[in-house]
Structures are given as C-alpha cells and as structure tokens.
TrEMBL record:
Key words, A-Z: Signal
Residues of the signal peptide: 1-19
InterPro entries, alphabetized: Calycin (IPR012674)
Protein name: Lipocalin
Superkingdom of this protein's organism: Bacteria
Length: 166
C-alpha cells in the first residue's frame, strides 16, 4: 500500500506544471551599461522597425512609440521574452537620460535607450538585466555603417552581439 501511495505521489508530481524558464540574459549583468544622455523624446516617437533582437522571428517587426509629453503609448510587436507578442502599454520616462518604466511591455523591466544616432534613424535599446536588447531602425534594412555602430554600442554595454543578430 505504501508503495502505491508513493507511486501516486510521484505521478502527481510529474504532472505538476513546470515553472516558466527564467529569461536568459543577453549581456553580462555585472558589466557596464549606460543610457543616452542627449535624447529628444518627441523625435524618438513614431514608427520603428526591429532590425535585430534576441528573439527569433522579430526582424522587420513594427513598433509604434507615440509620445504623450511624459512617456510613450506603445503598439506593434514586442520583441522581448522568448517569442514575439503584441506590444501594448505605456512607458513612463523616469530618467536620468533616456530611461523608461513600462506598464506592460518588455516584461515590465526598465527599458533604456542605450544610443540613438543624431538623426534618429537607428536606436539601441536594452535592460540592465540583459533580458532584452534590440536594434531599431526607421527603415529596413538598417544602413551598414549604422548597424556596425549599433553593435559597437551593444558590445560596449556588455551585450553578446552574437545573440542579438536575429
């Protein structure tokens, strides 16, 4: 009888839902990370395309960042986590520099604009945890020299650039 009870308990334990896997960091969380200091949130607003991210299947996905005066209303495709999903929610500007706190998107982790070129054609976003990182461009495909610069920014901020080229 005791063996039957143990067998039943083991069977129930095997059926229990497994917890969701912990997100994998795309960067060394002990490494340096910095956000853009010179940043115009109104110029950043508008439509962006995901040129590269750590999520397979996100290349070319559109994101709309509608500036409200204090943050952004988001729509499009969220390329954080393990697979693309609907991007929705708001980002409140929390600074210093280009740092934001989302209500729903990006796993609710703080999102930093690590770099944006002076003409706002390309931007690099990430999180201090490294669970999220992406290169955004206004028009696909991203210009070669700007993509090279974006990868240098990712590398400077302790990202593994081999994992963001999807």
């Amino acid at each position: 009888m005791r063996q039957l009870i143990w067998a039943a308990m083991l069977a129930l334990a095997a059926c229990a839902a497994k917890p969701a896997p912990e997100p994998v960091s795309l960067r060394d969380p002990k490494g340096w990370i910095s956000s853009a200091v010179i940043f115009d949130p109104a110029r950043f607003g508008g439509t962006w395309h995901v040129a590269q991210s750590g999520v397979a299947g996100c290349a070319g996905a559109k994101q709309n960042w509608a500036w409200t005066g204090t943050g952004y209303v988001l729509s499009g495709v969220d390329c954080s986590g393990t697979k693309p999903r609907q991007l929705e929610g708001r980002l409140a500007m929390t600074g210093p520099g280009a740092r934001f706190t989302p209500t729903e998107a990006f796993g609710k982790e703080p999102v930093w604009v690590l770099w944006v070129d002076q003409d706002y054609r390309i931007a690099v976003l990430g999180t201090p945890s490294g669970h999220f990182g992406q290169v955004l461009v206004r028009e696909m495909p991203g210009r070669g020299d700007l993509m090279t610069a974006a990868h240098e920014v990712l590398d400077f901020n302790s990202y593994d650039t081999r994992r963001i080229g999807r």
